[in-house]
Structures are given as structure tokens and as C-alpha cells.
Amino acid sequence: MSGIVLAIDPGTTKSAYVVYDDGNIREKGILDNHVLVEKLREGFSDHIINDLAMEMVACYGMPVGATVFETCVWIGRFIEAWGREYEMVYRKSVKIYLCGATKAKDGNVRQAIMDRYGSTREAAIGKKDSPGPLYGVSKDIWAAIGVAITFSEK
Questions:
Q1: For the domain that residue 12 is a member of, what is the CATH number?
Q2: Cα 34 from Cα 17, distance rounded (Å)
């Protein structure tokens, strides 16, 4: 894929996103889902976004709770608000692409992302006075970056 990608890690009330451009994180954050729906309808950012990639939930044979279904409802609302082509990216695909194993944990995915942006944690993340390319990335934004990388490079 080419161009600027909006990658979303959806949640029940808030969702993480990144605006990703050929390895560069142009924008990132966690927004209330209602705000994200409006941004998708109105035009997301100052960047011209070509593609939407969103993490999709998958069944692995275990019972799931109400929060999984609530997240699915939000995924549908995001798709409707976007109104164009999109691609679902499964967490399993992110783990295989970045770590080479489906048994990879979130920490492994974070480390694989950091490895792409610097030879050390300090180079990748940096500090307040010398921020790296991943400075300010936290929580579910890591998952959104994993979706963006997997979508963009596959």
C-alpha cells in the first residue's frame, strides 16, 4: 500500500489512532469514540488520508463478554463514518508480521516496533528534551502503530 494511512485500534469508549506515512507517525492519540466518528465524517486531519486500516476482533474459540460486542458496534460506526474502502487487520496478523509468531504478547509487539525506529529504547522513544520518533506513544497507540505497519508493508 502507499500513501497516508489512518490506523485505528478500536475500543468500547475510546480508540487509539495513528496517521502513518511511509514509516513516519504524523499524528497519534486516543479519542472518545464519538469524537473519532465525527472526525472520520468531517475529514480526519490536515493530512490527506488514502486508506483506513482497523484492528478487527476475532474468535479464538473462547467465550467473549459484552465489551467485545460493543467494540464491534464501534467498528461498524467507524466504517460507516469513513464511507470509503477500508481494510480490517487482525491482531494475529500483526503478531505474525512483526514478531513472526502468533504467541507474541503486547510487549513483544512494542519491542518489535521500537526496533524499527531505533537501535535502543532511548533512540526510538527518546526523552522530553530529545524526543525520538515514538516519543509520546503509550497504551493502545502501540497497537494502532502495529496495524499501520502491517497494513502498509504487506
A1: 3.30.420.10
A2: 14
